[in-house]
């Protein structure tokens, strides 16, 4: 089976690669590009552990066909920090105790980032809606919501 | 096993690609990609329509609202036009999956995937919506409530046809709509029951009503006898209760591990119908 050429931008870098026609965006990230930040939780788009930002919107990369990402701009967790400088969200997740096992964390941060990129003054309800597609088995969600609220406060300054 | 993935730039492109008989349309893919993993897809080529500019619209056209097949659930729920003139649809779309799913999944896909209680589709049935179905032989508008062949099987054949747009009459003065849903969780949960109501009120009486219920059969069900109970009648609490009771008689929910027992759903359904009617009347203005 012939591979298909795929061009896309990931974390600001132009990537020219090739994928199997049936590959998912998650396959491309983890297997081809060895970017392990996005996780395979359920493989069905029901847990959000694979969340990435595609053209400004969060998607479940485990069910997005890789080819559908042609010419798109992708942000993964690897692209959230600026070198050694953590994004406010990453800092508040640490400071608020919003990370336990860490498996849901990349997806949670990206969902939070996609929200704050558009709305720096979210209500509790808006945070919950934005993160409703990300399941956490450890924290009980409360500190995650606090961390997003706290990051918004910091970013408003 | 998928051997090829084509990105269509126009509807014509897509239809041409389907011409080889071994291809299938993919839009958002949130259902199709799972089917693929489960080995349920027989075709070997996927034809991606998400890049087709002409199907990305969401606009008013005369008395209709027209939603292109490339429009996602999130776009529908955020649209000011839909919130004002088809609230039932905005509310229904907002209940689907999660932000990640809504950003990818299309409203048209919600119809073509033919699940028994696809929220967007149920709302569209109450709006009297039509889908424009296009193939090599031409195009036609089909009433969405008539597009169900059987359980999870649409009359639209995605290996030879595609839906390019959905349209329905925009709600006007005196017309209201509402969506009620009962599910285990606020997100990432299929509905145990959902009811969509669209109606027209004049001088405190119902002119006409469309009540769509699901999952109470293999497809969204119009509670036509319940609608007749309301038609031409002055609105009272009693009338609404009568209509709700009638609606339950027209529903046939079964015992389901995913959707809940028949017993409890038959008990809850009249309340959902009542609430949906009341809310639709309230926002009929």
Describe this structure in words.
The complex is a heterodimer of chains A (157) and B (285). Helices cover 34% and strands 16% of the residues of chain A. With 157 residues, chain A is α+β, with helices and mostly antiparallel strands. In chain A, α2 (88-95) crosses α5 (142-156) and α3 crosses α4. Chain A is globular and about 50 Å long. By secondary structure, chain B is α+β, with helices and mostly antiparallel strands. Chain B has helices at 11-18, 32-37, 73-78, 80-85, 87-94, 99-102, 107-112, 119-126, 224-230, 237-249, 262-282; strands at residues 4-7, 23-26, 45-48, 58-61, 64-68, 130-135, 138-143, 148-150, 153-154, 161-169, 175-183, 191-202, 205-214, 221-222. In chain B, β2 (23-26), α2 (32-37) and β3 form a beta-alpha-beta unit. The N and C termini of chain B lie far apart (53 Å). Chains A and B meet through β4 of A and β1, α2, β3 and α6 of B.
Strand order of the largest sheet of chain B: 4-5-10-6-7
Instruction: Report the C-alpha radius of gyration of chain B, rounded.
Output: 19 Å
Give the total of beta strands of chain A.
5
Oligomer: heterodimer
**Unreliable runs of chain A:** none
What share of the residues of chain A does DSSP label as strand, in percent?
Answer: 15-25%
Tell how many strands the DSSP assignment of chain B holds: 14
Average pLDDT level of chain A: 97
């Amino acid at each position: 089976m012939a591979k298909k050429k795929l061009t896309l931008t990931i974390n600001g870098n132009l990537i020219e690669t090739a994928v199997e026609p049936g590959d998912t965006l998650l396959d491309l990230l983890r297997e081809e590009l060895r970017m392990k930040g996005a996780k395979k939780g359920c493989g069905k788009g029901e847990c959000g552990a694979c969340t990435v930002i595609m053209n400004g919107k969060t998607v479940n990369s485990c069910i997005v066909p890789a080819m559908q990402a042609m010419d798109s701009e992708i942000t993964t967790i690897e692209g959230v920090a600026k070198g050694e400088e953590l994004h406010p969200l990453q800092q508040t997740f640490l400071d608020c105790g919003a990370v336990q096992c860490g498996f849901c964390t990349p997806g949670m941060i990206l969902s939070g980032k996609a929200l704050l990129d558009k709305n720096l003054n979210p209500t509790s309800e808006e945070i919950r809606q934005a993160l409703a597609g990300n399941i956490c088995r450890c924290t009980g969600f409360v500190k995650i919501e606090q961390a997003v609220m706290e990051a918004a406060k910091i970013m408003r300054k | 096993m998928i051997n090829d993935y084509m990105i269509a730039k126009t509807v014509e492109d897509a239809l041409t690609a389907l011409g080889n008989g071994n291809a299938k349309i993919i839009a958002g893919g949130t259902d199709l990609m799972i089917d693929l993993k489960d080995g349920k897809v027989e075709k070997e080529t996927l034809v991606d329509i998400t890049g087709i500019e002409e199907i990305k619209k969401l606009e008013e056209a005369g008395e209709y609202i027209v939603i292109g097949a490339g429009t996602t659930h999130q776009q529908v729920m955020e649209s000011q036009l839909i919130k004002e003139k088809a609230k039932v649809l905005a509310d229904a779309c907002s209940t689907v999956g999660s932000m990640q799913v809504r950003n990818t999944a299309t409203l048209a896909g919600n119809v073509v995937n033919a699940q028994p209680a696809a929220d967007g589709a149920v709302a569209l049935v109450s709006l009297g919506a039509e889908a424009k179905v296009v193939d090599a032989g031409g195009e036609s508008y089909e009433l969405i409530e008539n597009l169900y062949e059987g359980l999870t099987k649409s009359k639209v054949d995605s290996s030879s046809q595609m839906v390019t747009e959905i349209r329905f009459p925009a709600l006007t003065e005196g017309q209201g709509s509402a969506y009620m849903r009962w599910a285990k969780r606020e997100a990432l949960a299929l509905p145990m029951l959902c009811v969509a109501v669209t109606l027209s009120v004049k001088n405190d009486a119902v002119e006409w009503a469309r009540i769509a219920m699901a999952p109470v059969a293999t497809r969204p069900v119009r509670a036509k006898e319940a609608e007749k109970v309301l038609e031409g009648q002055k609105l009272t609490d009693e009338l609404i209760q009568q209509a709700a009771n009638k609606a339950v008689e027209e529903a046939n929910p079964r015992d389901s591990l995913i959707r809940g027992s028949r017993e409890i759903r038959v008990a809850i359904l009249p309340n959902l119908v009542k609430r949906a009617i009341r809310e639709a009347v309230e926002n009929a203005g």
